[in-house]
Amino acid sequence: MMNELFKALNDETRREILNNLKERDMSAGDIADLFNISKPSISHHLEILRKADLVRSEKRGQFVFYSLNTTIMDELLQWILTLKKT
Amino acid sequence: MMNELFKALNDETRREILNNLKERDMSAGDIADLFNISKPSISHHLEILRKADLVRSEKRGQFVFYSLNTTIMDELLQWILTLKKT
DNA sequence: TAGATATTTAGACAAATATCTAAATACTAT
DNA sequence: ATAGTATTTAGATATTTGTCTAAATATCTA
Which terminus of chain B, N or C, has fewer Cβ atoms within 10 Å? Predict the structure, then answer.
């Protein structure tokens, strides 16, 4: 669980995807257009982010829209604060 | 920089090391004794944590003591909060 | 100085990862 | 139905990573 989370965050491309999703929900294709990386690779990154519950996906017609899930961030915050305390 | 940080955190053993250092400073050998992993491997993990500035090391006689550096955690906190905000 | 203990470095290797192209699947619209 | 667009799945490959053992380095002590 924490494993999936840290694994997902351990990649510059995936972190950049999260940063972009902060602004607005985006389709897989829109996200892919932000990078010089093939669509299948981006699709793979998105799956890793989804498994970590960092993003949610929703099919709208022929598109798949991705959105940021910030609630999982709270767990990460908690983890860090625990390390800092005492 | 953020790369080194996330890379360092992306390993259960290293996260466990950090948790143990929260309690008290420990020598490399003491840390190694906590795990069923060879001392060279632990030494390698410690180097990765050190490069990420998550731990500091100090030689005391023939021992090398490691301590947690929590200031770097603040950067991580900031990163997460930025993702959450708006 | 020799021997013992603590730690790191070097080199090897299997497993995991990021990437690609090609093909499959799903939906839209003519 | 057919063609076009969007996305994922499959399979391949080069790189990175975590681990090991053996050897090197550093320090302590008798």
Answer: C
Of the partner residues A3, A6, A73, the one whose CB lies closest to the CB of residue B84 = A73
The domain segmentation of chain A, as residue ranges, is 2-84
Helix (H) or strand (E) holding B63: strand B63-68
Q: B2-84, what's its fold?
A: Arc Repressor Mutant, subunit A (1.10.10)
Distance A42 CA to C21 C1' (A): 14
Q: Report the residue of A13, A80, A81 to disrupt the B interface, i.e. the one with the largest count of B CBs within 10 Å.
A: A80
Number of neighbours of residue A50 by Cβ within 10 angstroms: 16
Ordered per-residue pLDDT tens for chain B, 86 residues: 899 999 999 999 999 999 999 999 999 999 999 999 999 999 999 999 999 999 999 999 999 999 999 999 999 999 999 998 76
Decide if the complex's ipTM is over 0.90.
yes
